[in-house]
Amino acid sequence: MGLGVRKERNPGSAQTRAIDGTYAYAVQDGTNANSEAAVKNWKEALSNFSSLPPEYSEDTEPYNNPQNISFISLVNRKDNPKVDCVYFTCPAKPADPDQDSDTGGLEHGPEGRNKKQRSGNENTVDKEVKALRCVITPNALIASTAPYTQSQWDQVTTGLSENAAAGVPTPLGFAAAAVGFFLL
Prior knowledge:
By secondary structure, this protein is of the alpha+beta class.
């Protein structure tokens, strides 16, 4: 799900054009779910890399982890990267008081809550879920090509490891600012 092609409709036209880009996404829940938390999650993917990321090959390590794809896409070192994001909320399914007699095969615990919910394995329709999804162009990942040179990777790791504001790669900082602006 990390890579994909987004279709964009031209206003007043039935034509679509393909946008070749790399996707970044973060699914969240709880009170701290926001664009800042998503960007923090993506930045944490740096710890998944012990050295320069290898040539890109879909469905192989480290590219089989959506967090890694999101990180690389937002730290896109291609010329003139652009970030287009959407942040959305999927509300929880409303409680249905008429379902007291039908537990759907699930047992209730001492507090009257579903044991499945108490164990943390609840279905996502039982709680509010928020998500941030971005498409970054140009495509950061090209088959059989490493996403960074060693020099670029050194800049990325130095900037993010030191948490230096000046060292934060432009697309990553722009994504955080752009999404934050739209949520105001």
